[in-house]
Amino acid sequence: MAKLIVEVIDACDLMPKDGKGSANPYVEVEFDGQRQRTQTKPIDLNPQWNESLVFDVKNVQTLSHKTIDVFMYNDRRGGGSGQGHQPNNFMGRVRISGDSISLNNTQLQPLIQRYPLEKRGIFSHIKGDIALKIYLVTHNLPNNNNNNNNNNNNPLEKEREVERNEIISDDDDDDDDCIHHIEQEDRKDDVLKKKKKPEVRTFHSIGTAGGGTAGGGGAAAYEAFQMKAPTMETRTDFARAVGPGPLNSSVMQMQGPRMNPEYLLTETSPPLAARMRYRGGGNKINTTYDMVEQMHYLYVSVVKARDLPVMDVSGSLDPYVEVKLGNYKGVTKHLERNQNPVWRQIFAFSKERLQSNLLEVTVKDKDIGKDDVVGRVQFDLSEVPMRVPPDSPLAPQWYRLEDRKGMKIKGEVMLAVWIGTQADESFPEAWHSDAHSINHSNLANTRSKVFFSPKLYYLRVHVIEAQDLVPSERGRAPDVYVKVVLGNQMRPTRPAPMRSVNPIWNDELMFVVSEPFEDMIIVSVDDRVGPGKEEILGRVMIPVRDVPPRFEPSKLPDPRWYPLFKPSVGEEEGEKKKEKFASRILLRFCLDAGYHVLDESTHFSSDLQPSAKQLRKPGIGILELGILSARNLMPMKGKDGRSTDSYCVAKYGNKWVRTRTLLDTLHPKWNEQYTWEVFDPCTVITIAVFDNCHINGGNEARDQRIGKVRIRLSTLEIDRVYTHYYPLLVLTPGGLKKHGELHLALRFTCTGWANMVIQYGKPLLPKLHYAQPIAVRHIDWLRHQAMQIVAARLGRAEPPLRREVVEYMLDVDYHMWSLRRSKANFHRIMSLLTGVTAVCRWFDDICNWRNPVTTCLVHVLFLILVCYPELILPTIFLYLFVIGIWNYRFRPRHPPHMDARLSQADSAHPDELDEEFDSFPSSRPTDIARMRYDRLRSVAGRVQTVVGDLATQGERTQSILSWRDPRATAIFIFFSLIWAVFIYVTPFQVVAIMIGLFMLRHPRFRRKTPSVPVNFFKRLASKSDMLL
């Protein structure tokens, strides 16, 4: 007798069922009247069982007609001895056809298949998937241990003994559960319960490759298994098992059973004022800075000095100030030959790193050898005052200098010393203790700053026509086109349809401009004289500031005639030279202030406001972000003997923020808070971490990306403080890497409920995008130009926000081809279709009377709706309301984050990643490029087949009345006439009831062949036979 082995490996991303955000899942498998179950895994939404369930197969020939039913339930008692599934919560099921069961042998490792859990009905709330390994074991397989076990008994008896041991072990684990679930073996259980033997789970080792524990002749297969892990595959078609295929088909397979736990969010509870909700008295923290942990700093403001004594024989003094606290030391700039210097520098010492109770401020004279001490001032930290904003800044005071003996000497220094927090206005400009080793020229690269993107506009240039062009060769009709140049942007028009001296183009070009409008628009008319040779027939220059703006789509500005000048004439004499017959061009310029200039993808845009301020919507809320810390960062400067010099950049709307750089640490603590005004809830904030490569100069270096986080505001609850560790995931040519975790605090506060509710009914983009949409061919080019302008403007700030940072934040390469991203989008579509599939499967079960009670209820509901049609719409909307209320308790508890599994990043093939990171055009060798082209052709061939099938169905629909098939059209119109007369003389309710009862008829009255309408439709003619 053959044996069917069902190995239950694990499950992931299950639906919580215990009311506490978790579940106690166990699996129950039914096959041919036999039922077995696994242990219960308490409080685990990603359980791992690794248990083997054994079933008898009476007839292998009829296996293809049988079904394996796998059910998952939540054990309400939370233990491993549930008494059946009736009182327990249903968590999903999988039905596997017997056709998909493969025969296990000593050469092939059975595949671990992942099956998405299906719903039992439309009211079920199911998610997640389960990993199973299913294979058949027969006695015809060679026994690898025969040489070592010559005295063994009959193999059939040994197999039965193993089965008995398996049942005994199940009894040890589940006690009376096996009696309830395995009803066909009650008598065997009564006998075997008297024999309590140690747990033996060796049945899965039958077939050397399947279990991995065989000896002797299975060594080669075992070594092969160790060299290559078993392939994990996501199952979407359960008809047949698919074995491992070639490279270009195996790239669709998953390499892991579930998402790595390191890629998930970690909720935290830091001591934030916003979370602890201080209410007056005691240690109250300012509410404007309540999203970060309070950090205390000792601030020393060195302002200036006066009447300093001369130390050199030459009578000169080059003073500077040294601020020393324990092992930390800060130094100001030295000023040459100045007895009354002014420094105006602030130093900040972290209270956590204070190693002394004495602060020493020393004025020194810069010298070639050893610097001379002019004088000093000492402070006891216990007497330093505390300052917390919104207190006014502490006023500096004059302090008399002392010598080493404590005697007062000539000269005074103006200082201010206080203890404050990171909320102090001096915090961003201070020279922090961890950056005291950096010279003054590079200090600006470590400070925190706020940046604003330039205000961008779309410039529309409508080239209509030109008159009286004068080509260089008389009598030759010129082949002209117009070239428009604006800064670094250049766009040509199409060539004129007719070659003449009065060409007409009527072409429209678009550009991106930014305030202030300092550029010139250069319009030139070029003549193609020959191959690769062009001649300028005329040119005109128009300042951008003279272009009229447009706020509404109602009317465009009137076009104007502009005289064309030769380049030499325009440069020497300008517009003063007037000719009797001058060439001219008709142009319309328009500055479209009603558009929103797209500088980032619309899928995760942070700003959707129009360029014109008067057209912007009122704010609906405030977004507060606390950048707390990071942990376990990747050492990015390991080769230089350092760890990581990290800083964060956050972007929302046109506001960019950059935290200060914390040097040489893998666990930085920033604790900086920033605020944005929110105009649209359906926007995304982006936070990224970078490694600063400019602390020691070197403008050629590029800051390295450590990771990025995106959070959509519409997924956040109002006034709730979210504190989580977000994984910093970066996709590299070597695969997905985790570079650490970023600790963030986030809160979205609504200031206008009415405006926010109204916002959900308004268009996502400004009105001009819909009244006069931008051509698709222009969108990507304009977005690239906008990104270039933003990067160039932010790169000129101090400290600069460098181009590589801006490009990473704006996802400049998001539109490039990626096989990994294409697979991710394909899986997204398939996950959406699972709901439709579930409804169709439920309807099929109703029509086939799988559950007679449910089918009868559907009949009753159908008759009620037919008799009372006015209840149809109220029933639908009431159902939607009930489903929404029911799903409220299953709502997400955490904000979204980068999903490695959804992105197919954790299972991407190395060649896919190499292709994704390849330059454009490709820089890879010819054979690799040819292989990728062939793979793309293969994928495109499948897409072509699907598109052809859809076109075929559409053409069959069109051919019904087109008389392409005269007999089919005659049959259809004849039956249409009969149905028209029948429906006219018969009440509508009667017709609806007849059709409904016919569709829901019992399977006894059904045939397995397709219905007559389906057969008729499939016989209709399409145009596929007309293709070459």
List the helices and strands and how they pair.
Blueprint: E1 2-12, E2 25-31, E3 34-37, E4 48-57, E5 67-74, E6 89-97, E7 102-103, E8 112-116, E9 129-137, H1 155-174, H2 177-181, H3 186-192, H4 208-211, H5 219-227, E10 232-234, H6 247-250, E11 266-267, H7 273-276, E12 296-306, E13 319-325, E14 328-331, E15 342-350, E16 358-365, E17 372-380, E18 397-402, E19 408-421, E20 431-432, H8 440-443, E21 449-452, E22 456-467, E23 480-486, E24 489-492, E25 504-514, E26 520-530, E27 533-543, E28 549-550, E29 560-563, H9 567-572, E30 584-592, E31 621-631, E32 646-652, E33 655-658, E34 669-678, E35 684-691, E36 704-712, E37 721-732, E38 735-750, H10 753-759, H11 767-771, H12 776-794, H13 803-810, H14 819-847, H15 852-867, H16 872-887, H17 910-916, H18 926-958, H19 966-985, H20 988-999, H21 1012-1018
Parallel strand pairs: 7-9, 8-10, 15-20, 28-30
Antiparallel strand pairs: 1-4, 1-9, 2-3, 2-5, 5-6, 8-9, 11-37, 12-15, 12-19, 13-14, 13-16, 16-17, 18-19, 21-33, 22-25, 22-30, 23-24, 23-26, 26-27, 29-30, 31-34, 31-38, 32-33, 32-35, 35-36, 37-38
Helix pairs in contact: 12-13, 15-20
List the keywords.
1028 residues; alpha+beta; five-stranded antiparallel sheet
Low-confidence stretches: 80-86, 140-257, 278-286, 569-580
Oligomer description:
single chain
**Biggest β-sheet strands, sense, barrel:** 6 strands, mixed
Beta-strand residue fraction:
25-35%
Give Rg in angstroms. Answer: 38 Å
Query: How much is the average pLDDT?
Result: 81
Distance between the termini: 55 Å
Name the shape in a single word.
Answer: globular
> Given the helix and strand composition, which structural class is it?
alpha+beta
Helical content (DSSP H or I, runs of 4+) = 10-25%
Number of helices: 21
